[in-house]
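Support case: user asked for a sample of complex input and structure output to validate their parser. Sending the pair below.
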Amino acid sequence: MRIATWNVNSITARLPRLLAWLESSGTDVLCIQETKTTEEAFPTDALAELGYESAVRATGRWNGVAIVSRVGLADVVGGLPGGPEYDGVEEPRAISATCGPVRVWSVYVPNGREVGHPHFAYKLQWLKALRDAVADDAAGDRPFAVLGDYNIAPHDSDVWDPTAFIGATHVTPEEREALAALRATGLDDVVPRPLKYDQPFTYWDYRQLGFPKNRGMRIDLVYGNDPFRSAVSDAYVDREERKGKGASDHAPVVTDLTV
DNA sequence: ATGTCAATGTTGCATTGA
């Protein structure tokens, strides 16, 4: 079984590449972030033609998450129970479902914008709520994983130049401690292998030749429990999908399971 | 093969977020 996560940066803009990639990669379950569309405008029909069911949590211009599966899609829960609001709005950043033998979450963790910004406090609150919401499944016997754009680089080696991130979000002790608290529920990082270079970056800024210069970050993560990790046979970042015209600024992270 | 991209409102550019 092949499970992947991909921040597509608008499913509308990415649809041709998304459909082609699903077919060429043979992905069974894809966790999607930044759909940037309404649930009504989500391309449910186009995905159904390829044999995928869709579960979507989205409200429009910003954020939006989905899970698409060709191995079953049951017990869908939209949103993050107990999660904080931002500016009085519950943003669409989480959805979970059971796909065959595996339960998965697709998450788009708040960016944080700047250290000290209200969005940064919101990011930490959101991660705390996520930890509480997944604790039972993380400790369970069923393969379980939280996949998505965490907007955190777990280690200094997960950014192209740590000195370029001094004082920035995505690398602070507070954010990394929030990840550690999430791992303490029984989850751990399924680190993918890179297809080129040494570091498995998943995101490269569109600006300033980020991708050609390999100025990347590993911020799209797969956090699985013991039964999930025991079933992992391979994991890699499909950097080929970051190339060329019409690419997202994130590459898919692909995980193969023997279930 | 690469010196942003995408959605939306203030609409054919400016604004916002990433």
